[in-house]
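Exam revision sheet. Question 4 asks you to relate a sequence to its structure. Input first:
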Amino acid sequence: MTSKMLAWLVACSTCASTVAFAQEEPPPVVPYRPSVATPADLPAPGWPELEAGWNGAKGGGAARSQSVPLLFKMAWNERWGFLVGTDVYDRQRDPDGTVVSSGGDTTLAVKYRWPVQERVSLGAQLGVALPTARRPFGSGRADWNVTTIASFDVEATHIDINGSATLLGAADDGQGRWKGGWAVAGSHPLQGPFGVTGEVSGVAQRGTSAQTQGLVALTYNASRRLVLDVAVAAGLSRAAPDWQLIAGMTVQLGHWF
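Answer key, structure tokens:
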């Protein structure tokens, strides 16, 4: 998948959305980006969404790196949905000046949401990362992941807590094949269409240094069908990237069923 294909997808989805929205009032989108933590909530059934963005980073094993992530989300009822994601483009410059680029692995996931109470939901997500990326962006083997999710509201603040475990298809010598992850994010509406998100997240794997980072994001609700975001993340451990700059959008693709 190339950047031209991404632009084509966005353009087509916008045209389709315009026709659909002229006929009925759409439900609001449910952004998962730009934080690491994902909410238990699903998009409205039959109203798929596309997330796209750009990430730039410095440090964390590479002098500079950038990626263009893409995620398609659809729910077929109030409790079940699926996700398809990839990095349209990955580029990394090593400290010695070597530059490599590739597309990313392709992730497929099924997600379940369990509404416990009006303001509390639990969720689980099971997925596989197919080896579509070249080294060093991919290992050439499939990785399996399970993520547990707890989402709840405290007054006007929404909280998402995630815990994940990934079984790697391949690992370097001396490293474990299991990788654990966690994330805690809180989002709060500001005046008008703006909102703010704060998050702390981390990754741990046997034989490697743990990575922890903090993130602050600003979101703008352009409409019920489009949310824009920008975020800055800073490494809280030596192994994490020194900083990251993130920007993107979540757009609705119309009413499919």
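Marking note for examiners. The helical segments are 3-21.
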